[in-house]
């Protein structure tokens, strides 16, 4: 399945689209949760992941 991964802070956003297996998705979401907990300042980057839907 395709996923959109966004890494953003106060003044910049980096977006990537990747195909991930279920296992890769689980690993990445665990990392994202841990990473975002460590982002304690409002301008420190956080990561979000979304299912990517292609426009028809």
Topology:
Blueprint (H helix, E strand, L loop, with lengths): L1 E7 L4 E7 L2 H16 L8 E6 L5
What does this structure look like?
With 56 residues, the chain is α+β, with helices and mostly antiparallel strands. The chain has one domain. 29% of the residues lie in helices and 36% in strands. The protein is built from one helix and three strands. The protein has one helix at 22-37, and strands spanning 2-8, 13-19, 46-51. It has a three-stranded antiparallel beta sheet with strand order 2-1-3. A hairpin with a 4-residue loop joins strand 1 and strand 2 (13-19). The longest helix has 16 residues, at 22-37. The chain is flat and about 35 Å long.
How would you describe the oligomerization state of the chains in this entry? Answer: single chain
- Strand content is 35-45%
Structural domains: how many? 1
Distance between the termini: 16 Å
> What's the Cα radius of gyration?
12 Å
Structural class: alpha+beta
- Helicity range: 25-40%
SS elements, strand count: 3
Low-pLDDT stretches: none
Q: Taking all residues together, what is the mean pLDDT?
A: 92
Q: What is the count of helical runs?
A: 1
Could you spell the SSE succession in H and E letters? EEHE
Largest sheet: 3 strands, antiparallel
What form results from the Cα inertia axes?
Answer: flat
What strand line-up does the widest sheet have? 2-1-3
């Amino acid at each position: 399945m395709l996923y959109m991964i966004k890494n953003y802070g106060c003044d910049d956003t980096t977006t990537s689209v990747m195909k991930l297996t279920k296992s890769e998705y689980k690993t990445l979401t665990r990392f994202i949760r841990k990473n975002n907990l460590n982002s304690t300042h409002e301008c420190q980057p956080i990561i979000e992941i979304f299912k990517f839907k292609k426009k028809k």
